[in-house]
Amino acid sequence: MTRSPRPRKPSALSRSTHQRLNSYALAASAAGVSVLALARASEAKVVYTETHQVTRARIPLYIDLNHDGIKDFVLRTAIYVGSSGFEVGLDASGYRNNAVAGRRFSTSGGYFFSAASALPAGARIGPKRKFPVRFPFMAVELFNGVGSQYSDLGPWASKGKGVRNRYLGLKFVVHGKVHYGWARLSVTLGHHRQYDDVSGTLTGYAYETVPNKPIIAGQITGPNVITVPPETLGELARGRK
Questions:
Q1: Which phi and psi angles does 8 have, rounded to 5°?
Q2: What contacts 164, CB < 8 A, 6 or more positions away?
Q3: pLDDT in tens, 122-141
Q4: Please, are residues 25 and 227 in contact by the beta-carbon 8 Å criterion?
Q5: Cα–Cα distance measured from residue 50 to residue 150, given in angstroms and rounded to the nearest whole number
Q6: Rounded to 5 degrees, what angle do the CA atoms 201, 57, 63 make?
């Protein structure tokens, strides 16, 4: 049996190298070059992006994890109004072969659904973690048909209190190879029977540049981490116009 070659051990990055990578990423992204390719060339391990974005009712929030101009994941509000009641929630999903870590459940009636895990800082995200079917929900408010009685469901609902600085586990595929990452979010629930009752705030995301290598949720410092600051994201967006 032929053994696959062992991945080369990444080396530590100096402060000057970090700065050069950020500058190169800005110029290269405008030319359509992925930050992932740049990070590989410099043997970086984790690429972290600072951001601050809030979900809005009926408007998807997209995540381009490696800044190559291709949408990798999406956060969106889910709204249902019917005779039996009112439902509003927040879902997360991946495009193409990308997926979100979570669990699959079954109800007493035989209906299956999946929920995205609200991982704590320090959680290990990699091949051993489960990535269920598409469109796992994060948090949902359910109101009855009349009055204002409600119930909260989902790992990100936390009994109606919401969560702060939890992590979505992410699996995404680039050029046929699987990489792992995370997105840091806080989720609030309003209980006002409105379309924007369930809101998510995205404050950062990161990915591991070595294929099939696990990543630690919340890791944003260290010699092998490079950071893409918010101002660079603006420059990247303008460079694509």
A1: -70, 140
A2: 186
A3: 999 999 999 987 789 999 99
A4: no
A5: 35
A6: 50
